[in-house]
Amino acid sequence: MIRIENLKKAFGKVTVLDGIDLSIEPGEVVSILGSSGSGKSTLIRCINGLERIDAGRITVDDFDVSNPKELAEARKRSGTVFQLFNLYPHLSALRNVTLAPVEVLKRNAAEAEKEGRALLESVGLGDRADAYPAQLSGGQRQRVGICRALAMKPRYLLLDEVTSALDPEMTAEVLEILADLTGRGTTMIFVTHEVAFARSISDRIVFLDQGRLLVDLPCETFFAEDGGMANARVAQFLSKMRKD
């Protein structure tokens, strides 16, 4: 379980996360919605230890992210896919996928390569294993990024606006891969502006507003008139997203 308790984070005088309480059970798909600046991406970065928290506590399977001695173990349990791919440009797609399993988890190189090729094949990139990031489309690079995260065999997959830098066709490619992963029972925390997709795959919807957790509801309840839509801020956000 990922457990977040009274999480607070500020950048200078700007409070970005203000008393967040949230738990993610294994097997759940939880989408985090909210307008730009609501703290969604910062929350993901706090979970994987890329941002130091100011107060509160985050544990990943009981490993405290704020404890330097436990952070490495917490990170082994969660894989992160970023919005801008963050692939190593001098490494092939396959090497981007296999580097961490070999260097961090000390897996056998031949075994890691076999698993890496299988992962790339599963997302339609079996024939692009030796291509470098510059030779791949944006959608292909994001699929490599997903494979790289999955290669660490994480219990939790953290996805931070993974389609925001993609055109509609490439977005559809990546969303199809993510939908397939949810069908396999992959635990996901999905920060997104793709409201319709979030509605189709999520068990729960979390809505952040100005750094506060405003709503945390089962997906069907969130989109119901007497559920999340009964909250004026949520209704305003969803109305604007439909118009956009």
TrEMBL record:
Keyword Protein transport: no
Secreted among keywords: no
One cellular component term from this protein's GO annotations in UniProt: plasma membrane
Subcellular location, record wording: Cell membrane
Location of the ABC transporter domain: 2-235
Membrane topology: Peripheral membrane protein
One Gene Ontology molecular-function label: ATP hydrolysis activity
Keywords: Amino-acid transport, ATP-binding, Cell membrane, Membrane, Nucleotide-binding, Transport
UniProt family annotation: Belongs to the ABC transporter superfamily.
Entry protein name: Amino acid ABC transporter ATP-binding protein
Species of provenance: Pararhizobium mangrovi
